[in-house]
## 1
Amino acid sequence: MKRDVDMRTTKYLLILLIVLVPVGSSFAPEEPHEKSYTEIVVKGNNDFAFEVYSKLADRQEGNMFLSPYSISTALAMTYAGARGRTETQMADVLHFPTTVSAKPPSGSTGDQKQFHSTFGTIVKALNARGNKGAYELTVANALWGQKGYGFLREFLELIEASYGGKLNEVDFRSAVESARQRINAWVEKKTKGKIKDLIVKGLLSRMTRLVLTNAIYFKGNWASQFQEEETRNAPFTLLDGEKIDAPMMNQTGEFKYMETEDFQGLELPYIDEELSMIIFLPKKFDGLGELEKTLTCENLSEWMAKLRKQKVIVSIPKFKMTSEFELAEVLMSMGMTDAFSGSADFSGMNGKRDLFISLVIHKAYVDVNEEGTEAAAATAVIINVTAVRPEPTPVFRADHPFVFVIRDNQSGSILFIGRVMNPKA
């Protein structure tokens, strides 16, 4: 597949950058149809979350943390400019709904207008929740476009109305380094310094025409905090059976808990219980691979329904990690091929078919400690123009590899997903 920028025809580069940190979202009461459509959008995002996690888990070893919600948001803004087969492929891979009652916008195969309005409602709800003060939560979007370039007014208005992403003019043609530094500074500011240098030198060029950015920052304390004096080093068994010493946080309290023959599940809510971390722990120290194969939206719903509040003895490691991914090949392997080639059709952005995605870069950070969780993530999509409760008190001791999600309890949205293979790595 032709992805070089050294093509004979004139090409431009479109970069989509998104930054995210664990957050929760809430919704105002809706009419039955609107709520149903919101649930469709949320389920689609969650389906994509598990699929992209599975692809990445198969490709790399060790700790991993990402925000599929960030990736979905970045690509949703890109999707607003997609048309024809490019739009269809993106909707299929990202699980965006395409058949609804409202009239689709001109040239679009699906109902993008309703989709972006609904997605935007989720974003606005996150900000509304974050303003309450129980925890830190901010969501921001922005467009960084080549000054004087002819972006369609309809595209810019849709992004601003739905995502609050206003156009900031920069000069990629003659001041690409200045543009890169300006965008990176925005990312760093919106993530409270946790995501730095998302776009490294060489990713932007004189061919770049647009960078779409989304930043979300979340910092929340546990509803039931761990006491530092109860944290002590204890053995953590790695996948190969080797044992290392890791700082394990300990407490006994009332938590939602479930277990099957193969794994345990524990929900640790943050203050106000609007947002939770759910940890799934295999019963075998080397059972993570088998558990990961069962991660689906349907199974998560089934497991969440089995959680029951009860007294649990909890021991989990402190951990901190940063993960970075280039997602173009993963997305292409999932079926989103045209968007990364000369066949791409992003004419909804500029009225031409000269843009294509060259890179999708994602970077995420998480810090889990006695007080709570702080996390951030960033995704850069570079589009080139081409062309049952047990009777003794259950013990949840996460002393071997496990997977976790950070989930909004009102909408059911999966905001972050990760695995801990080695808490000291």
Note: The chain has two domains: 13-221+321-385, 228-318+389-420.
## 2
Amino acid sequence: MKYLRILLSYICGLTYMAWMCLLPKKPLSRVCDKSRPSLVVTFTSYGRRVGTTVIHVLKSLLLQSHRPDRIVLWLDNVNFSSENIPLKLARFCSKYGVEIRFCEDIRSYKKLVPALELCPDDILVTVDDDLVYKRGFLKSLYEAHLQTPTQILCTLAHCPRVKDGYFLPYREWKQNVTKMGNEAVFPLGGAGTLYPPHSLFKDVSNKELFMKLAPQADDIWFWAMAVMAGTKHRLIDFGYAFYQIDLLYQKLHSNSSLMSSNLHKDCNDVQIRSIMEYYNDLYNKWSSVS
């Protein structure tokens, strides 16, 4: 049954990709309304995905019922430059107004940290480079933001579990929650997470610090930075916002995936512990904002 679910998810993703190819797509507007913060979708990619999955992610973002003002793809400046981007991707981005920017290689942190520096006063939505997104997900996030403009919003989350004032191991948390409830949530950034302007603690862009405390766990770091800033997280009631398009490859090469390293080898627990030892009032702050 496990492998059947994987296969069905992959088939749904492929079907959605084919459907997107048939729909007309419009370039992003180059004129921004300066009377309000821009809605910016930001994400990163690496390796083979730059030439395989990224273009499909972009198609799904351009087809959103509420279109973003900007889409920014961040690539590391060690392995990529304007000279070696896949030609098909470069032409697509040029045609539809998608920005490709280069930054320091700070691993998965590239999805958000450079955008915080580029667009400090804008609304940022993080996505992943191996998922295609349903047409209404960005609209749902933005409408929820208008209702609660100071909260960080997500479409998929884990729910931390505690005992005697300590977090239980990450693998014992309630996983992949999509329905709103009374539990505190831990957003999964790749599934679609909206960050209002100035919602994260001042240390969020401290590269030396996050690469020391949580080098493989950007979601944990961003969650901690929200807690330290006193920002509340909220799960919107949208359901799964995406379809998988690279799942089969990941299952066949599971040893190289970040999820495998973090969850199955318990690296997340090590990194949570490191952050909590550095910010010794993190648990108390989390209890007060949850």
Note: The two ends are 36 Å apart (CA to CA).
## 3
Amino acid sequence: MTPIDRPASRVFAPNGPLIWGLTATQIMGWGNLYHCFPLYMQQMQAEFGWSMTESNLALTIGLVMADLVAIPVGHWVDRRGGHVIMTCGAALGAVMLALWSQVETLSGLYAIWIFMGMAQGCSLGLVPAAVVTANVRDYRRGLAYVSFFSSLASTIAIPLVSLLISAIGWRHSLMVQAGVQLLGPVCVNAVVLRGTRGSRSGERGKPASERQPSPVPRVLRMPAFWFLALACSIHWFIAMSVSVHILPLMHERGLSLQTSVALVAMNGPASVAGRLMMFYLVPGNSGILTGRFMFPMFAAGTLLLALATDFWSFAAYAVVFGMAAGVLMIVRQTSVAEIFGTRGYGAITGALTTVSILPRTMAPLSVAFLHDWFGSYDQVVWILFALTVVGTVAFYLAAGARRGE
């Protein structure tokens, strides 16, 4: 490892208050700011008569904004740590939830989700990963802890919010979530992130002659970055496409709605099982080692989907695909540090996120277009399988450039 890649001092334990505080904020934050969106859209479509396309455009706007702020937010976290930006991002989310409860027009909803996306980009996902990488001694284990428990956010939030909406209505439910966001992520971030640093903290005070340049331009010139970006973008594209189109695909192949919902529900436990396997079986929770196994498994899951025709074949798909898709979220976080070093982690992961804007936001629409073009999902799923093969090869090429911690 060259001096430019030397990581900042890490003083926090992988099982201490910082990790458990971040875990709590991610569970509540993902539940409040992302996973419950479909529940509220059903209510708003019924009340205002909006189409599915009109209402779901708000989520697309939010995803785009979250990706657009990824690079500047990453630079901030690298330089100053996550205390201020994660606390302010969580607070912005609380304000947007409260304003959402008062919305009456589509334009108002879209405006709210511009800022909701900014709140997500400042407080969720790769930002806490950058905090862990820069501050926790065993950052791989710390990332595994946070990612594993954060995956339970939808399992916890969706049924609770569904009951809340049924009891007090969607507007009051959003106000309750705003309160939870304020008392939970905002307060916890304000306390547990105090004293944390970024991977480049302390560099600003040095004389100009002693300052090291940002690692991002150097990383962008490395073929490994673009191979990893391709692999991650394909993962995002496939995961987003399948999550939106899996129910109509199963219906097209003759499964009932009840059976399809039961099969889709298997993805969650399968994802948890996959993360447990990584946590206990992979030496050092290495993202590269895990990715070398899980990317081919992800391709195998997509192949099973292409071949599935009945309950048991779809069940096999759900287990294999769910395990791989869940673990690859962690692989993306840890492999960046293992391949490129931990200095500048926030900005590098921000660049990867920005590259994935189109795959993330256009995936469902692209698959819908292909379905209409071919007249069924049969050819579409084979295209998705071909993409997973490309993604697997790309990850292996990126992993071959590993430079160490």
Note: The domain at 10-201 is CATH 1.20.1250.20 (Growth Hormone; Chain: A;).
## 4
Amino acid sequence: MKKVSILVPESSVMQAIADPQYLFSAVNQFLVMKGKTALFEVQLVGAGKEVKLNGGMYSVHTDRQLGDSQRTDLVVIPALFGDMQRAIADNRAMVPWIQKQYQNGAEVASLCVGAFLLASTGLLCGKKCSTHWGFQNEFRALFPDVEVVDGSVITEENRIYSSGGANSYWNLLLHLVEKYTDRETAILASKYFAIDIDRESQAAFAMFKGQKSHADSEVRKVQEYIEQNIQDRMSVDDLAGMIAVGRRSFERRFKQATNNSVLEYIQRIKIESAKRSFENSRKNINEVMFDVGYTDTKAFRSVFKKITGLTPIEYRNKYNKQAPAQ
């Protein structure tokens, strides 16, 4: 029997508590229906017997409290809600409990921005992690010793798991079901819950918001120039010349400030503009390509797919139902 402990933190997302409880309980039923023994003992663990969420709108009654000494096999940290630093502070009592369970051999899985609470334990130091694409810059600023994997839905390293944003956590939960049972049961669960079992990237859903919460005003000046001149071709040397510094110094400062190389930043700004055009206009692929400063169809397609995980046509057909197919 695998003991699964789903944490119930303050300021957590109710659905990210209910979904794993529902999934592991449903898998137990699937196993019993096949003549096998139920595998998971699922329990909700919190600081007290009752945890109120969403300003008291919901009340969750826990099965066990942090003071209980019972060992568990899997700790699930649900997504948090609101201000992340405040959420971490509100749940600091959970940190030693998570650390102790991991030291005793438990696996730990964070769902979406539950990664913030997981990282606050120190267990992610020097390891890879996924989180919601919209919170990656804040996560990097708070936890510079953790390697955030852009676009990834699932990371796994040394008994620690993390997932991408929002409903991406279902892919991590199915991954754990497959690990603990078998592929057949995981596929059955994916069909039951109507989840694409093998989705590996959240890139198609991500919106690039240039990192400007830094103190380098000259780098910010260059960022604004790039964003305002997406139709132009621009070189790193030209951009370095704007602020009168050498190329190597400029590249180092830009990377330090934005977490992107200059070329990556230019590409992501251009592709973000292309995505908006595909979503909201009836322009064809070539028109959008020229609008964002590309003249080589193959190069544009390659960069677009690298960043979004989809070809330009696939992206437009996915998000703009009014556009004619090409």
Note: Residues 52 and 59 are 4 Å apart (CA to CA).
